Amino acid sequence: MPKIKPPVRTPHIDMTPMVDLFALLLTFFMLTTSFRPQEAVVVDTPNSISEKVSPDKNVITILVSKADKVFLNFDNGLDTAVSVRKEVLKKMAEQYHLKFTDKELKTFSTGASFGMPIEKLKAYLNTTDSKEKELFQTGIPLDSTDNQLNLWVRFIRLQNPNAEVAIKGDSDADFKSVKHVMDILQDNKVNKFSLITNLMKDEAKLED
After folding, report:
1. How many domains does the chain divide into?
2. Considering the domain boundaries, does residue 131 fall inside one?
Protein backbone atom coordinates (compact mmCIF):
# COMPACT_ATOMS: atom_id res chain seq x y z
CA MET A 1 0.00 0.00 0.00
CA PRO A 2 1.46 3.39 -0.99
CA LYS A 3 2.60 5.77 1.77
CA ILE A 4 0.39 8.86 2.19
CA LYS A 5 2.41 12.09 2.52
CA PRO A 6 0.84 14.97 4.38
CA PRO A 7 0.64 18.21 2.42
CA VAL A 8 3.59 20.55 2.93
CA ARG A 9 2.55 23.80 4.53
CA THR A 10 4.46 27.06 4.21
CA PRO A 11 5.47 28.42 7.63
CA HIS A 12 3.37 31.40 8.68
CA ILE A 13 4.54 34.05 11.14
CA ASP A 14 1.94 36.24 12.77
CA MET A 15 3.31 39.81 12.59
CA THR A 16 0.43 41.38 14.51
CA PRO A 17 2.21 41.41 17.92
CA MET A 18 5.33 42.94 16.36
CA VAL A 19 3.32 45.69 14.67
CA ASP A 20 1.61 46.47 17.98
CA LEU A 21 4.99 46.65 19.72
CA PHE A 22 6.37 48.97 17.04
CA ALA A 23 3.35 51.28 17.41
CA LEU A 24 3.81 51.40 21.19
CA LEU A 25 7.53 52.20 20.89
CA LEU A 26 6.89 54.89 18.29
CA THR A 27 4.26 56.52 20.51
CA PHE A 28 6.60 56.38 23.51
CA PHE A 29 9.47 58.06 21.68
CA MET A 30 7.20 60.74 20.23
CA LEU A 31 5.87 61.64 23.68
CA THR A 32 9.19 61.58 25.51
CA THR A 33 11.56 63.09 22.94
CA SER A 34 12.52 66.72 23.54
CA PHE A 35 13.88 68.63 20.56
CA ARG A 36 17.02 70.70 21.00
CA PRO A 37 16.17 74.44 21.05
CA GLN A 38 17.40 76.49 18.10
CA GLU A 39 20.70 78.28 18.60
CA ALA A 40 20.74 82.07 18.92
CA VAL A 41 22.95 82.48 15.86
CA VAL A 42 24.04 80.36 12.90
CA VAL A 43 27.78 79.73 13.06
CA ASP A 44 29.62 78.29 10.06
CA THR A 45 32.56 76.60 11.74
CA PRO A 46 35.86 75.96 9.93
CA ASN A 47 36.92 72.47 8.84
CA SER A 48 39.45 70.24 10.56
CA ILE A 49 40.46 66.58 10.64
CA SER A 50 39.88 66.16 14.37
CA GLU A 51 37.37 63.41 15.20
CA LYS A 52 36.93 64.26 18.89
CA VAL A 53 33.23 64.52 19.72
CA SER A 54 32.02 67.40 21.87
CA PRO A 55 30.24 66.25 25.07
CA ASP A 56 26.50 66.75 25.45
CA LYS A 57 26.62 67.51 29.18
CA ASN A 58 28.86 69.54 31.47
CA VAL A 59 29.90 71.91 28.70
CA ILE A 60 30.05 75.69 28.31
CA THR A 61 29.77 76.73 24.66
CA ILE A 62 30.83 80.22 23.59
CA LEU A 63 29.71 81.13 20.07
CA VAL A 64 31.38 83.87 18.00
CA SER A 65 29.38 84.95 14.95
CA LYS A 66 30.74 86.30 11.67
CA ALA A 67 29.71 89.76 12.93
CA ASP A 68 32.03 89.21 15.95
CA LYS A 69 29.09 89.02 18.36
CA VAL A 70 29.43 86.61 21.28
CA PHE A 71 26.71 84.23 22.48
CA LEU A 72 26.69 81.75 25.33
CA ASN A 73 25.17 78.38 26.11
CA PHE A 74 25.60 76.06 29.08
CA ASP A 75 23.69 73.10 30.44
CA ASN A 76 22.42 72.20 33.91
CA GLY A 77 25.21 69.72 34.61
CA LEU A 78 25.00 66.08 35.60
CA ASP A 79 23.39 66.69 39.00
CA THR A 80 19.67 66.67 38.27
CA ALA A 81 18.88 67.95 41.77
CA VAL A 82 20.41 71.35 41.00
CA SER A 83 19.69 73.59 38.00
CA VAL A 84 23.00 75.23 37.13
CA ARG A 85 21.41 77.70 34.72
CA LYS A 86 18.89 78.85 37.30
CA GLU A 87 21.52 79.35 40.02
CA VAL A 88 23.87 81.21 37.68
CA LEU A 89 21.08 83.56 36.60
CA LYS A 90 20.35 84.30 40.26
CA LYS A 91 24.00 85.28 40.77
CA MET A 92 23.95 87.53 37.72
CA ALA A 93 20.73 89.13 38.94
CA GLU A 94 22.34 89.91 42.31
CA GLN A 95 25.35 91.42 40.57
CA TYR A 96 23.22 93.78 38.50
CA HIS A 97 20.48 94.36 41.10
CA LEU A 98 17.80 92.65 39.04
CA LYS A 99 15.02 90.26 40.02
CA PHE A 100 13.64 87.35 38.02
CA THR A 101 10.41 85.53 38.80
CA ASP A 102 10.25 81.76 39.28
CA LYS A 103 8.63 81.45 35.87
CA GLU A 104 11.44 83.42 34.24
CA LEU A 105 14.07 81.33 36.03
CA LYS A 106 12.40 78.13 34.86
CA THR A 107 12.20 79.40 31.27
CA PHE A 108 15.88 80.28 31.33
CA SER A 109 16.85 76.91 32.84
CA THR A 110 15.36 75.04 29.85
CA GLY A 111 16.56 77.46 27.18
CA ALA A 112 19.41 77.32 24.70
CA SER A 113 22.10 79.79 23.68
CA PHE A 114 21.55 83.50 24.22
CA GLY A 115 23.40 86.71 23.53
CA MET A 116 22.25 90.00 25.01
CA PRO A 117 22.97 92.35 27.92
CA ILE A 118 21.63 91.02 31.23
CA GLU A 119 19.36 94.07 31.45
CA LYS A 120 17.39 92.85 28.40
CA LEU A 121 17.18 89.22 29.47
CA LYS A 122 13.96 89.67 31.46
CA ALA A 123 12.09 91.07 28.46
CA TYR A 124 13.56 88.30 26.27
CA LEU A 125 12.30 85.56 28.61
CA ASN A 126 8.79 87.02 28.55
CA THR A 127 8.64 87.23 24.76
CA THR A 128 6.91 84.36 22.99
CA ASP A 129 7.22 85.55 19.39
CA SER A 130 10.28 83.98 17.74
CA LYS A 131 10.93 86.97 15.46
CA GLU A 132 10.87 89.36 18.41
CA LYS A 133 13.26 87.07 20.29
CA GLU A 134 15.77 87.35 17.45
CA LEU A 135 15.85 91.14 17.86
CA PHE A 136 17.16 90.73 21.41
CA GLN A 137 20.13 88.64 20.26
CA THR A 138 22.67 91.46 19.90
CA GLY A 139 25.58 89.75 21.64
CA ILE A 140 26.88 89.63 25.22
CA PRO A 141 28.90 92.72 26.25
CA LEU A 142 32.57 91.96 26.81
CA ASP A 143 34.26 95.34 26.70
CA SER A 144 36.39 96.71 29.52
CA THR A 145 33.62 98.86 30.98
CA ASP A 146 31.01 96.10 31.20
CA ASN A 147 32.50 92.64 30.67
CA GLN A 148 29.38 90.55 31.25
CA LEU A 149 30.83 87.48 29.52
CA ASN A 150 33.56 87.40 32.14
CA LEU A 151 30.94 87.32 34.91
CA TRP A 152 28.86 84.65 33.19
CA VAL A 153 31.90 82.38 32.84
CA ARG A 154 32.97 83.03 36.44
CA PHE A 155 29.57 82.19 37.94
CA ILE A 156 29.14 79.10 35.73
CA ARG A 157 32.54 77.81 36.79
CA LEU A 158 31.75 78.43 40.46
CA GLN A 159 28.46 76.56 40.14
CA ASN A 160 29.82 73.75 37.95
CA PRO A 161 33.65 73.47 38.23
CA ASN A 162 33.69 70.28 36.12
CA ALA A 163 32.18 71.93 33.05
CA GLU A 164 34.34 71.83 29.93
CA VAL A 165 34.62 74.90 27.72
CA ALA A 166 34.20 74.89 23.93
CA ILE A 167 34.54 77.83 21.55
CA LYS A 168 32.42 77.71 18.41
CA GLY A 169 33.70 80.45 16.14
CA ASP A 170 32.50 81.29 12.65
CA SER A 171 35.06 80.74 9.89
CA ASP A 172 34.60 84.40 8.86
CA ALA A 173 34.91 85.81 12.40
CA ASP A 174 37.81 88.11 13.23
CA PHE A 175 40.52 86.23 15.09
CA LYS A 176 40.85 89.18 17.49
CA SER A 177 37.32 88.48 18.75
CA VAL A 178 38.13 84.82 19.36
CA LYS A 179 41.41 85.84 21.04
CA HIS A 180 39.47 88.18 23.32
CA VAL A 181 37.24 85.29 24.36
CA MET A 182 40.33 83.18 25.07
CA ASP A 183 41.75 85.96 27.24
CA ILE A 184 38.52 86.09 29.25
CA LEU A 185 38.71 82.33 29.78
CA GLN A 186 42.29 82.59 30.99
CA ASP A 187 41.29 85.38 33.37
CA ASN A 188 38.94 82.80 34.91
CA LYS A 189 41.79 80.23 35.05
CA VAL A 190 40.34 78.24 32.15
CA ASN A 191 43.48 77.26 30.26
CA LYS A 192 42.05 74.16 28.58
CA PHE A 193 39.25 74.47 26.06
CA SER A 194 38.15 72.98 22.73
CA LEU A 195 37.51 74.59 19.36
CA ILE A 196 34.42 73.24 17.62
CA THR A 197 34.94 72.51 13.92
CA ASN A 198 33.39 70.55 11.07
CA LEU A 199 34.95 67.19 10.32
CA MET A 200 36.88 67.32 7.06
CA LYS A 201 37.39 63.84 5.60
CA ASP A 202 40.52 63.09 3.65
CA GLU A 203 39.77 62.10 0.07
CA ALA A 204 41.50 59.04 -1.30
CA LYS A 205 43.88 59.88 -4.14
CA LEU A 206 45.24 57.54 -6.77
CA GLU A 207 49.00 57.33 -6.90
CA ASP A 208 50.68 57.90 -10.23
Report:
1. 1
2. yes
Going by the DSSP 8-state scheme, the letter that residue 165 receives in this structure is E
For position 208, what pLDDT does the model report?
Answer: 46
The percent of residues above 90 in pLDDT, for the chain, comes to: 51
Q: Is the pLDDT of residue 165 over 80?
A: yes
Strand 59-64, strand 164-169: pairing: parallel
Tell me the one-letter amino acid at 198.
N
Structural domain for 122, as ranges: 47-199
Residue 39, pLDDT above cutoff 70: no
Enter the DSSP assignment of 147: B
Question: For residue 84, what are the contacts with CB-CB under 8 A and spacing of at least 6?
Answer: 74, 75, 76, 77, 156, 159, 160, 163
Q: Rounded to the nearest 10 degrees, what angle do helices 148-159 and 84-95 cross at?
A: 140
Q: In this structure, is residue 1 part of a structural domain?
A: no
